Every structure is written in structure tokens, then in C-alpha cells.
Amino acid sequence: MPIDTDASLARRTVRARAARVSALLLGGLFVGFLLLVVFFIEYRRAIDWVDHTHKVISAVEELQSALADAESGQRGYLLSLDPRHLVPYEEGRERSRALLDRLRALTADNPAQQDKVTALRSLTADRLDRMAELLRRAKEAGVAWAPAPVREGIGAGMMAEIRRMTATMRVEEDLLLAGRSRHATILELLMIAYGIVFVTVTGWLCFSTVRRMERDYQAERAEGEALAATLQENRVLLDEVNHRVKNSLQIVANLLRTQAMRHRSEEVRQELLDSSSRVLAIAEVHRRLYGEGAVYDTVELTDLIRSIAENAVPPTGGAEPSMTLAAGAPLSAPVDTAVPVALIVNELLTNSYKHAFPNGRRGRVTVDMAVAGNEVRIDVADDGIGLPEGVASGGGGFGLNTVRNLTRQLRGRLEIERLTPGTRFLLTFPMKPRAPTQA
Amino acid sequence: MKILIIEDEFLIAEGVSLTLQSAGHAVTGIAEDLPTALALAGQEKPDMAFVDIKLANGSNGLDVARELKAMGIACVFATGNPPNKAQAGGVGLGYIAKPFSPRVLVQTAAFVAGTLSPCGPAAAAPHGFVTL
Questions:
Q1: Contact (CB<8Å) A243/B81
Q2: Can you give the pTM of this predicted structure?
Q3: Could you tell me the domains of chain B?
Q4: pLDDT tens digits along A309-368
Q5: Residue among A343, A360, A357 nearest A423 (CA)
Q6: Which fold has domain A263-430?
Q7: Chain B residues touching residue A311 (CB < 8 angstroms)
Q8: Which of A303, A385, A373 is nearest to A345 (CA)?
Q9: Under CATH, which architecture does the A6-219 domain have?
Q10: Which one of A194, A285, A369, A415 counts the least CB within 10 Å of its CB?
């Protein structure tokens, strides 16, 4: 489970704020990108207008050229009556008409130019009609009479008017071209500048985001390593503490035992040995809670009782130990149940071994454990000489009183039954079965 | 059997010694570190040794067991930090975990005696003794 430290909480707050800022910046970048697209579209449009103006200028110049060709052709025919001169005339005439249509279409956006085109169309039509008339008359006359109409200068006047009109249109278009070119250039520069800013900001944002993520990662890794080191240190310390406790329990048990073996009084010796045995019963619980590198919060009762029963058997004596333990799933008990159970079973067994078989009497001591629903039953029985009168109903020494108190602590019941022969102690207490867990 | 005790906690060593002597064994000495253990082993030639893992002066029970095994002395670890098979590396017969009862100690000594005898062990390993 991750552990929240002050540093990690602070980092999380900063990261949340940075995420919000980044989201804003990204939103800004997106809008910026859209603006760039708009700039580009505008720029393309400006370029298109510049192209358009060039086309109008080009069409105007071509019209002048077409009319000049037609005029040249006409003049040539009038002077020589050579039909070859009619080719450029006719081509020029057709091109002029087509160019006028094109000019009309190209200047559809410009009402002033449209008016000029209309006037130009009229002038051109008149000029072409006059040319056609002169050519017709020249064909009919069959002689070179053209110089006369040419000397009249009507055609020249018309052409002059046409040239003035086209020149006006050209000036207008030149002005438009200048403006539009300037506009396109400005847009181009803006686009380039904006593009540079956009790329720079995006690059900076990416760089700073990556750097921040890298810094965060390093900080988290360092913190993780520090935590792992602390955890390992704590494990080592815990192992050391457990080792000390085990040694200490062994020392206490041994001290009592050693003192017992050196004492002259049998009664005192037995009391000290009983105390040593109680310490070892508690030690059995501790050994199971603090294993190799692991800490548990439950103890397996069947195995615990088996060890205590084994340890309770005196080294020499007439009683033959016999054990029956509940079959089935292991029964895990929390430590505040396991310790009283260990002490109770130890007390009942040592009592049986001490008192039930005096003077070399042989017999059996049995331990049974069973689980029925949420109730545990531990049955310790012997076939010895039985309890003295009054003990079953509330008397007894320190050991049996301890058993009664511990039974109360377990919220259980202790039933003492006189057998023929022997005694039976039935301990029942409530306990919900739990799966063994590692703390 | 002649038994050597290798334990740096005097009060534990004394208790172990008295228990083994009450069971009829001869305790050839108590050593708290590797040099003392080797000196006593060479001098007294015990049949087996009970060896703690964490010893005095930086000594390690696994090293002691390795040396004693080379001298033909059977070792049983008596420790609060039981070693695993990989660590023990075949140098110890097994271990009893602290805190152990006098019964476990005596039954283990009897089991080892049976193991060392030409007929082999008379019974299965006692409860509380873990074979390595």
C-alpha cells in the first residue's frame, strides 16, 4: 500500500497545479494552432488576390495586343488587299472579344473596373465594327483606297480612347496589386513570426514538461529508495528485537530452572519449575508470532497445543502421554486468545502429571481439541487418582485459580468432572475462526 | 554423550548445560566464539555440539559448525534465528528454535546419539527439532 509522506503530498499538490497549468497551456496552444491555420488561409487568399490582379493586368495587356494585331491586319489588307493580312485581323478580333469576356469575369469583384470594362467593350465593338466596315468596302472597291479613311483618323481616335481606358484600368490594377502584395507580405511575415513563437512555446512546454516529469520521477525514486531502506532497517531492527526477546525468554526460563535444580526444598523447586514451564508456554506463542523475517497476528492453535503438550511431559515418570487433536483445517487464534489457552493447557497438563500419578502410578493423559461452530473445546483428562474433594467446586492452588481467571478472560467455561478413575477438565470458549494472516 | 555448548549468553548456556547433565550427558565446555569453540573441540573431542548462530566477538555459528563438522563433530543449531537449508549448507543436522523447552533439548540430544550410533536413530526426529 503506498505510504503518503509530507513530501509526496506536497509533490502531488504541485503536480495537480502543474497539470492544470499544462492543460491551460495546451488549450492555448490549440487555439494558437487554429490561429496559425487562419493566418495561413488568409495568406493563401492574399496570394490568390495578387495572382488575380496579375491576371487582370495580363488580360488588359493582351486585349491591347489583340486589338493592335487586328488593326495591323486591317491596315495591311487595306494597303495591299492581300487576304493574308485578314488572318491576324480575324484572330485579333476573336481574341479581343474573348478577352473582354474574361475581363468582365475577372473584374466582377470591382464595380469601378466593371464599368470600365463595359465602356471598353463598347469602344472595342465600335472599333471592330469600323474595321469590319472598312474591310468590306475595301473588298467591294477592290482598289487601295484605304489611305483616305486612315487619313481621316477615326480609327486612330478610337484606338487612342481604348488605350486610355486600358491604361486607366491598368493603373487601377497596379494600385490594387501594390496593396494586395503588401498585404500578402505582411501576412507572410506575421505567419513566420507567429510560427517561430508557436514552435518555441511548444518546444519549451514539451521540454519543461519532460524535465518536470523526470524530476518528479527521480524524486519519487529517491523517496522510494529511502523508504525501502528505512523499511529494511526496521525489519533488521525488528528481527534483532525478536531475537533479543527469544533469548530473554530462554534466559528467564533457564534461570528459573537452574535455580530450581539448585534449591534444596522440593516444594520450592517444583514452584520454580512450574514457573519455568509457564514462561516456556508463553514463549511457544511468541515463537509462532515472530518467525523468520515475518510477523503474524494469529497463532495456529492445534500446533501450539501439541508443542505445549509435548513440553509438559516430565522427563521421567509413569504417565504415558497420549494426544488426540482435532482433525481438519488449522485453527488460527489471535494472540490475546493464544496466550491464555497456552497457559491453561500447560497448567492443566502439568497438574495432571504432578498430582494424578503419585508413587510411580502409571496412566494416560489425553488432550483433545475440537471446534463446533464458533466454540472451541479443549478437553484435558487423565486416569489418575482424581482431584481432592472441594477442588472441583472452587478450591485449588495457584495453578487452578490461574486457570479459572484465564478462562474468565477468554469469556469461556471450565467444567471439572470427576471420572472413574481420574479427572476431566473441559474448557470451552467462543472464537470466530480466522485465516492465518501476516501482519 | 560428550556435548559441547557454543553460546555467548551465559544464562542460556548454564541452563542448557544443567539440563543435559541431568539427562546423563557430559558437557565438555561452554564456548562463546569461534576460537574458544575450536580450542575446546580439539581438546575435549566431544561427540556433538549445540551451536547458537549469533556469537560473541563477531563469530558466526555457521562458521563454527563448518569447522566442527570438519573435525567429525555433529552439530545442532540452538538459535533464535533458524538458518535455512541453503545457509546451513549441510554443516548442521538440524536446529531447535529458541526458546526451547528442556524436553526438546534432551530429546534432540537422544536423537543425535541415535543418529551417531552404528544402529542409526531409534525413533523419528523429536517434535521441535527441524532437520536441515
A1: yes
A2: 0.64
A3: 2-131 (3.40.50.2300)
A4: 888 887 665 566 666 665 556 788 888 899 999 999 999 999 998 888 888 778 888 898
A5: A357
A6: Heat Shock Protein 90 (3.30.565)
A7: 101, 103-104
A8: A303
A9: Up-down Bundle (1.20)
A10: A415
